[in-house]
Amino acid sequence: MDLDMGPSQHYFFQMSVEERFRIVRSVGEECIQEEELLNLLTKKPQPICYDGFEPSGRMHIVQGVMKTINVNKLTSAGCKVKIWIADWFAQLNNKMGGDLDIFFLKADICQLGMDQRKVNMLTREYCDDSKRKNKPIILSHHMLPGLLQGQEKMSKSDVSSAIFMEDEEAAVNLKIKKACCPPNVVDGNPCLDYIKYVVFPWFNEFKVERKAENGGEK
């Protein structure tokens, strides 16, 4: 599936390279390498960005919301996003008759989760060893943790650890109430992660309702 710019997104031509870089870079928790990304955006108005996911079973908010946020950022900065869907992954494992997935799509940027960092780094190493040009830039996005304690990654197998796109409001509220949210702890706090990576990018604000005697609304 190719996601190209719509008519309203052509304003990126009026943006500076530095502004486009800031938007694209904001997608990734890590970028390898930033100077390569800046150089790419300087030389290529519409770089190709590769992403892929397996919507097997139920789709959770990482695939349904975070991916939308990230793709919108990338296309607003002029990127053409190519998403490789699950039904092709079996063929990719056979390397498409010799073509590697990333090279087959002619990707300039690999925008995948931090859990795919190792395989993406192998792609860059392969380019170095084979003297192949157009080494892809690796833009690795943050991995949302599960809602329960000690879950580094949201899991579909444990329905209480993830919020799914078809969850009713009551189910979401119950999961949030049961979520791990230790007081005065920021690192590894799933509730704060959801606010930072889902709520703020989508709604720009987050309100906490409290009684007046407890400090009021924040």
Quickly list its features.
218 residues; alpha/beta; Rossmann fold; 6-stranded mixed β-sheet; 8 helices; 6 strands; 38% helix
Q: Explain this structure to me?
A:
It is a single chain. The protein is α/β, with parallel strands linked by helices and 218 residues long. It has two domains: 2-141, HUPs (Rossmann fold, 3-Layer(aba) Sandwich); 159-207, no CATH class. It is built from eight helices and six strands. A six-stranded mixed beta sheet has the order 1-4-3-5-6-2, sandwiched between helices. Strand 3, helix 3 (61-76) and strand 4 (80-85) form a beta-alpha-beta unit. Helix 1 (17-25) crosses helix 2 and helix 3 packs across helix 8 (190-203). The longest helix is centred in the first third of the chain and has 16 residues, at 61-76. The chain is globular. It starts with a strand and ends in a 15-residue tail after the last helix.
Question: What can be said about this structure in brief?
Answer:
The chain has 218 residues and is of the alpha/beta class. The chain has helices spanning 17-25, 34-43, 61-76, 89-93, 101-104, 117-130, 169-178, 190-203; strands at 2-3, 30-32, 48-53, 80-85, 109-113, 137-141.
